[in-house]
Design a protein that fits this description.
Number of helices: 22
Strand order of the largest sheet: 1-2
Radius of gyration: 23 Å
Structural class: mainly alpha
Order of helices and strands: HHHEHEHHHHHHHHHHHHEEHHHHHH
Amino acid sequence: MKYLSSRLFFLVAYFMVQSLCLFQNQLRVAPWGQFTNFGGLGKAMVYARLALSEQQGLFSAGGLLFLDSSTSDTERRPHNENLYLEGIPVSDNRFYYKSRPAFSTYLYAAWDMISPFPNSTNIVIFRLLQSILSSLILAWLLHWVWLEFGRSSAIMVAIGFLLSPWLTVSGGHLFWASGFFYLPMVYIALQLYRAPDALFSGQQVLIIAGLYFIKSLYVGYELITAALLMCLIPIVYYAFRQKWGVRKLFRQLAISSVAISIGLILSVGVLLWQMSRVEDNRTTGFAHLKERFEVRTTGRMPGAGGVTPQLQASQEASYRETLSKYWATPLVRFPKLSRQGPVSRWVISTRVFLVGAILLAVVSCFWLTLRPLAGTFLISLVAPASWFLLFKSHSYMHPFLDPLVWYLPSVPMAWALFGLILTQLAQHFRRGTVKTVDADLRF
């Protein structure tokens, strides 16, 4: 009972603090300008969508996100925000964003229809709701970490989340809502914790498909390869821990992949329906998705007479040059509790954190009780690496957005490993013995 009470207290406390961090940058781990301006055009599209739903109905234009393009580029973001905040009529000159269903805007618009509050207050409510939902999912992930790896790992992952500038700016964001990336993965992890040697049942497959469907409806296909692969990482961990054979591992991966694919395909069907409301037919929708995939992977614009200088640079850039844009970005920023003055300069860069974590994981592979998690962390790096390899052009052009990919799920796995190492070291010291390397291999 005491163990359960301490875990519940920890999760509730984390949830409350994390919600405040996502909602108002409580620990100041992100510069205020980054917190308020992150994903500015995405946020502006949400405002414009809310304005159109308010003026023409919930399902007008299929519920697609868009930007009102009746103003200059410099005025576009404030103009689209004011469409909702000030009730300005939406023009017919619109640029539709047809790369995600953005189901969350349906929920916002439904609330807007019955809300007694002014639109500026509704925006605050939407951001608070987004922060709460993301924090709930992250707390759910910590619940699994505590059950599987213990209290120290859960505390370390919680600290990592709270000190992350990228989760802080994206978790409560009206467009990004980054907590939803973890939704299918956490369910898979908890099911394997309860029955680590059982293959997923038909009911579990349907739930996994449904959760990935919800994730795709909510945050679309951002960082798509990492978002897909991260769902399979718990399976890799339990294959290590339980010493599965190759055949069983591939069967579980195949079952999970089918479930995830079902959710993904259903969400694409919803998006095609949305596009059919503003296009002549679904064939046009398929062509658009194919085009956007090619743009994000190769940087080429099909059917265009040429490419922009930015796209040209992204094509010519090497993988090393692309990654160099991310190495110096802060992956951890220590808090500045005072609201006055500049943000804290105490940071851990992506390069330092990942290189340190990789070296520590390689060493930990020689410690039997750490080997499953250490090996899983090393394999989990495939998920973010896949994004940089397949979507090099997009990564090159969006270093102010894409560092979040390291959290899917390599960074939390690294924090969990740090915590498990502390637990194992504490157990050694409590026993008062010093083990040799050979003894550690048999531990």
